[in-house]
Amino acid sequence: MIDTIPRKLALLPILAVAATGAHSPPAATIPGFEPLATNSSGAALCTRDRVWCVATQGEKGPLVITANGKEVGRQVPDAEDSDLQLSPLPALLRLSDGSAIVAVQVREPISYSGGGGEIATLRLLHIRRDGAPRTVLTVPWNTDLMIRACFSEKDAKARAGACHDQYQFDGQLAVVKPAKSGPPTLTYTASAQYFPRGISRNADSLTLPPLKKSDLIWVNDRACSYRRTLSFDPASGVYKPDTPLPDCDQYTSQ
Question: Among 11, 69, 188, 191, which one is most buried in terms of CB atoms within 10 A?
């Protein structure tokens, strides 16, 4: 079952974008986490007392975490994909044992013929002062894709002028139950939508039934809009959801 969300649409010329959703990017801060602000040089995000700082060295360089001015952690983009970019969220969580959890976006720019966008995942890194950072959570975070769907005037007519398929996904994270020791319990909320109605990345848009003007709406994808409780599992050292996340590859893969 799907929920439709009417949008104010403006039909544009052939091969141009048919519509743009009111896409709200995920919150920069995470409720329950300590906000970070740029330091005096603007080179790093730091806690108010300047004990913890996070900085990215260059657009595709490593992400470096320091505590009291000393490097305590470093995260580099995956070696097999040079297009990945790391960027810290201005959010950090201090734990009772003196360690901390840092939130990092892993962004992947996507390029298609006549379209493109970006897919981002969120990683939570557990930073200890005496060991390498450990990834304790990886979840889909933000997707904004536009895929060309018209290659001729005939295609544009069959698509009612909507010559791009669009897919959007937003994730939100929050602390819901602080822990006496170790990482707290979290909630993860995802919302997904696509435009126009009737499309699927699992099918060639030109083989699907012709679109009507009534199809030129944003559709809330209920299967990929969900909420999970995330609890830290000491045995594995990572967060686990109370129920497995659904397969939403159309928003999370190229």
Answer: 188
CA 150 – CA 162 distance, rounded (Å): 8
How far is Cα 141 from Cα 210, in angstroms, rounded to an integer? Answer: 32
> DSSP secondary-structure letter at 183?
S
Q: Residue 106 in 3-state DSSP? A: strand
pLDDT digits (tens, 9 = 90+) for 140-150: 999 999 999 89
Q: Which one, of 240, 234, 104, 125, lies nearest residue 181 by Cα?
A: 234
- Strands 226-233 and 238-241, by their bridges, are antiparallel
CB atoms within 10 A of CB 254: 11
Residue written as token pair 């906000």:
35
Q: What is the DSSP string of 104-142?
A: EEEEEEEEETTEEEEEEEEEEEEE-TTS--EEEEEEEEE
* Structure token digits, residue 114: 């006549």
Q: What is the pLDDT of residues 36-78, one digit of tens each?
A: 998 777 689 999 999 999 998 776 678 899 999 999 988 887 6
